Amino acid sequence: MPNLILGIESSCDETAASVVCSGRGILSSVVASQIGTHRKYGGVVPELASREHLRAIVPAVREALERAGAGYGSLSAVAVTEGPGLVGSLLVGLTFAKAICAARGLPLIGVNHIEGHIHAVLIEASAAGTEIAFPALALVASGGHTHLFELPIEGRYRLMGKTRDDAAGEAYDKVAKLLGFGYPGGPLLDALAPHGDANAIRLPFSKMKGNALDFSFSGLKTAMLRWVESRGMEAEIAVRREMLRAARHPTTGEWLAATPAGTLNAIAAFQRVVIEELLRRLDRAAEESGAKAIIVSGGVACNQGLRRAAAGGRFRCPVYFPTPGLSTDNAAMIAAAAQGKFNRGEFADLTLKAKAGLTLA
Description:
single chain, alpha/beta, Nucleotidyltransferase, domain 5, five-stranded mixed β-sheet, 10 strands, globular
């Protein structure tokens, strides 16, 4: 029998709500972004994120229900992100979800944010009639996470590798800020990278002791810092920062005009190393696990350079990416990830807590 699950996501800086039917049909997906609030600070400010969630949570849920043509009375359960994430942000979504469940007598389902990203791929594959084979690998790469999991079967996870310092998306944002491009930096660096020569500048790959499937991006970030410091780029960077102070957002063409060839080469080289770091570990993990499918999700999955490289015949098994709208934080993935728990009757009570450091495996 079909069921409707309301998903709520508020782990970082986007307030999201969605209604999903039986774990595969997205009836609505609403995302209220806070980028405009945090851009001037060069990154997410936790206290401001919490305040923005408080403003956006009621309108987001109301709009999600309206778009789905659903009311609280037609819901089967409410799913909410319980972690990992910013604890203040998590508390807003969690508290609102509890209030709905208490008032309407609905089951409450707590969902791991990282598991949600994996289900962003699974829900779209299911809706398209595509069967993802198991065992599978899942790479979740975003501003806050870079984790590599083996999935022996759907719903079971074994952690194979994770970042020891910066997440991949965080490295993009920090390098973009260093070069004067502001926040968020990942999409812009991805757009600029094809205009540079990735082989013109040599940047280091990480050398891992211990688990070879772990990630590290701090050395690459430091190499970019040293490259900037060695070139006396203050005037060039000042031009771009002045562009950011304008009351509008520069186009990619305007950024290109303000970025010399040498800097474009550095951006291209940086992107090449990040992508290669991710794909080398996927390649090795696929050989070790005998994976029949690879899932790549999280905000970095929007990166066009990564998508092109992964689709270039490097892997023996199919590689699945979510559409851009489901790559970044959203609530449809939370509702989809909750379906299995709903089927098994794994419900939380109203003592469910926000867990900033929640692990998946």
